[in-house]
Amino acid sequence: MRDFLIGLTFIIAGCITIYVAQQFPTIQSLQYGPSLFPSLVGGGFCIGGLVLALNNYRNSKDSLQRIKLEKNKAYDWKSLLYSLLPAILIIFYILSIDYLGSLLTMSIMMFILMKVRKTSTISAISISAIMSFTIYYAFSQYLLVPLPQGDLFGEVKQWML
After folding, report:
1. Where are the domains of the chain?
2. What tens digit of pLDDT does each residue of 33-52 get?
3. Which of 41, 50, 64, 152 has its CA 20 to 30 A from that of 109?
4. For the stretch 109-140, what's the b/e string if a residue is b when 16 or more beta carbons lie within 10 angstroms of its beta carbon?
């Protein structure tokens, strides 16, 4: 049942992502705009959530029998949190990117994901910083995507990058 609810959560998150992405401004000279990548991510969320929910629905009879047998066992909240962590981090990204900026927000997200996978702290900090800077540089310099600078550091970040 947990996988079914997580699948529905991802479907809802995907639909919200697609809806918000369609509100982005369009660029007249391009066939695609800034809404393309978030719409693809939202579509992936919808498809992945649908597959997860349908797979769980097919196995529901077996699951109901196991639930009756395992009724006295404690619920595994930790695995539920790990399953929802990508969606939680995306919500964190949406809420914090205007204040922290894309570079710092990506670094924090990658650090959290690596620490959940039990990576050493020094490796997690260095890899998340290097990869965040690489992604930021590739998007801002080569793909010419204007990423948010954030209000936290103000003009200090302008001369650094």
Report:
1. 1-73, 77-161
2. 778 888 888 999 899 888 88
3. 50
4. bbbbebeeeeeeeeebbeebbeebeebbeeeb
